[in-house]
Structures are given as structure tokens and as C-alpha cells.
Design brief:
alpha/beta; six-stranded mixed sheet; five-stranded mixed sheet
């Protein structure tokens, strides 16, 4: 393994030292520690070191993410460290990773998904209320175009304003000032931080579908590190991998990103993968939404062929999950995107991008 070091335990036994890169925020550290704990259980002889660093997204806090225009806001510095062999793997929130990774990198593991939905966190003075019952012109904080577009249409009596910063910062802004009646956050982050008690309501898909990859953790590695790739591959959760391949393929085919409102909802039921995807204008008044499904059953001979390690599907390498199932999940995402594009999704997204750039 490149950059690998060893440490003796004083008894003549040598153990490998593997360095894990992460962002510095408390949530990022909690997420990384959870992955490290799983690896320690599986590989007790491996010594893990965690290397924390700041990213562009952590440093630019006065601008909406969609306005910065950089696709790898929360990943670039971590990938640079991976490239320079300063770390051996990096833990990300999957939704922060672009659908096309830089050459030489791959997602070697997608862990079992936490609740992917968005959550409403009310200002303490609004305890007991819902988005429906908040007063006219109440201000809701979110820096996500996707959330704002869906919620503007669903709750026209509310106003939406950008709020930036990590989870701790945003909750502090909500609690200590009277600028916001509520803020919208990913439920997964609140759960991982142990702050479930702050969740006033979970937004169901009818109100707000989630972001591609939301709620899932990804482990990014160097493609050339076969042993590290093999080591982390046992962390893959099959259903989460197939759902996220479909979601990422949908987004990639649409050429979407942070600067356009694209939302998804996926479900695995009776060996069928269901994908609902939608695109929105910035104010939510114009939208296209549809659902498709595919079988992901691994029963046929084709599914049992060895999976080619060099094949990435929207940045994911999953050698222990049948290749045919992965192919069908990817095709599902592409087909649904093509269906929406055939109905005019390109125009909605182009206008949304232009309006966002002009804001």
C-alpha cells in the first residue's frame, strides 16, 4: 500500500498504520469515527489514525453553496491529501461527492444509509407548530435550492433565506437570534450528532424529496490501492449501494449539481428498486417528476459472474455486489433522467441555473 507505515507493538508483531482523512467539523468526525470503529472490529491488527482538515466549503461561510459553483467544495482538499499519499482513505457524506470523481479515485464503500429525509427544526418559540401552522411570512432557513424549491410550492405562506455553516453553527443561529422561525436540515446529521430531540417533524417525500446520496456515508480510496479497496469493500450495504447508484446515475444524466434543484426518493421492495426523481424551477412553480422501477434480483447466471474490479458505476466500485444488479440500477437512473429530459427537464434546469447565477 502506498504511503503505508508500520508500528511495532513491543512484542515483535508489526501492525499496519492506515490514515483516514476527514473534515474538521464535529459531525464529520463522528461519521469518520463510526467508520473507523467498524474497521477496527473487522481488522483488529490495523492501527488507524484520523487526519482532520478544512475544506473550501468549511472556509467560505458567507455565500450560498449553490453560488460558489465549485463541485467539490467539501472534498477537494481531502482528495489532494489522498493523491499525495498523506491519507489512505477518506470518509465523506455521499451527497458531497460529485457523480464523476477525479481520475485515480473511487468510492470503495457506501455504508448502510441513515434516514435520508429532511427534518424541520423549529425555533424554541414555535414549539408545537408545523410548517403548515407557522404564521404568514415566517422565515425558514436553508441553503439548499432543492429544499427551497419544493417547500416554496408546498408552503406558499412561508419565506426562505440562506443559512450557512456546519450543523452546530446553524442551530446556534436559529436558537440565539430571531431571524428564522425554523431551519431545514438533513435528519441523518441530527441523528448522528445525537440531537434527535431537535427534530420537530420529518419531511415526507410528498412534501420534500431528498438529495442524491443523502444519509449515506462513502469511503473514497485510490483506485490503485487494491488491498485498501478490498479492506473497505466489506462495509458496503447492498441496498444502499444500488439505491445510490440509481440516484447518482439520474443526477449525472441530468447534468445536475448543487446549483440546480434535483430531488430523489428510492426504495427497495421485493427485489424491485423504485426510483422517483424530480427537477424544479427555483420557485417550485415548474416541475417534472416521475417514477420507474427495475428488478435487482441476483438470481440469473449473469448476476453471478465475477464483478470487474476496474468497473466504476458513477464513481462506485462494489465488487461484492452482483454486477448485473448494479448495471440495472445505473440504467434505471439514466432511463428516468432521459424520460424527464424528453418532457422538458433541460429547459427547467437551464433556467434555474441562469437565475441562480444572476442572484
Amino acid at each position: 500500500m502506498s504511503g503505508e507505515t508500520s508500528s511495532g507493538d513491543g512484542k515483535g508483531k508489526v501492525s499496519r498504520v492506515i490514515r483516514i482523512g476527514t473534515r474538521k467539523s464535529q459531525l464529520a468526525r463522528i461519521q469518520t469515527d463510526s467508520v473507523a470503529d467498524k474497521l477496527r472490529e473487522l481488522y483488529p491488527d490495523v492501527h488507524l489514525e484520523i487526519v482532520a482538515m478544512s475544506t473550501i466549503g468549511d472556509k467560505i461561510l458567507d455565500t450560498a453553496l449553490s453560488k460558489i459553483g465549485e463541485k467539490s467544495l467539501f472534498t477537494k482538499e481531502l482528495e489532494n491529501a489522498l493523491e499525495r499519499n498523506e491519507v489512505d482513505l477518506v470518509v465523506h457524506s455521499l451527497k458531497d461527492l460529485p457523480t464523476t470523481l477525479p481520475p485515480g479515485f473511487t468510492i470503495g464503500a457506501v455504508l448502510k444509509r441513515e434516514n435520508p429525509h429532511d427534518a424541520v427544526v423549529l425555533h424554541p418559540s414555535n414549539a408545537g407548530k408545523t410548517l403548515d401552522t407557522l404564521p404568514e411570512k415566517s422565515v425558514i432557513g436553508t441553503s439548499s435550492l432543492r429544499r427551497a424549491a419544493q417547500l416554496k410550492k408546498r408552503f406558499p405562506h412561508l419565506e426562505f433565506k440562506d443559512i450557512r455553516g456546519n450543523l452546530n453553527t446553524r442551530l446556534k443561529k436559529l436558537d440565539e437570534k430571531n431571524d428564522f422561525a425554523a431551519i431545514i436540515l438533513a435528519a441523518a446529521g441530527l441523528v448522528r450528532m445525537g440531537w434527535e430531540n431537535r427534530i420537530s417533524m420529518i419531511l415526507e417525500p410528498e412534501d420534500c424529496m431528498y438529495a442524491v446520496g443523502q444519509g449515506a456515508l462513502a469511503v473514497e480510496v485510490r483506485v490503485s490501492d487494491a488491498d485498501i479497496l478490498e479492506m473497505v469493500s466489506v462495509l458496503h450495504d447492498a441496498d444502499t449501494v444500488l439505491r445510490c447508484i440509481a440516484e447518482r446515475a439520474f443526477l449525472k444524466q441530468l447534468e445536475g449539481g448543487c446549483s440546480v434543484p434535483v430531488a430523489v426518493h428510492t426504495q427497495v421492495k421485493d427485489s424491485q428498486l423504485y426510483l422517483t426523481g424530480a427537477v424544479y424551477s427555483l420557485d417550485g412553480s415548474d416541475s417534472l417528476k416521475d417514477t420507474m422501477q427495475t428488478s435487482i434480483a441476483a438470481g440469473d447466471e449473469q448476476s453471478l459472474r465475477p464483478v470487474d474490479e476496474l468497473v466504476q458505476r458513477v464513481g462506485v466500485t462494489a465488487t461484492k455486489i452482483p454486477g448485473a444488479s448494479q448495471d440495472r440500477a445505473e440504467r434505471l437512473g439514466v432511463d428516468l433522467a432521459d424520460l424527464l429530459l424528453s418532457k422538458g427537464a433541460k429547459k427547467i434546469l437551464t433556467v434555474a441555473r441562469q437565475l441562480n447565477d444572476a442572484r
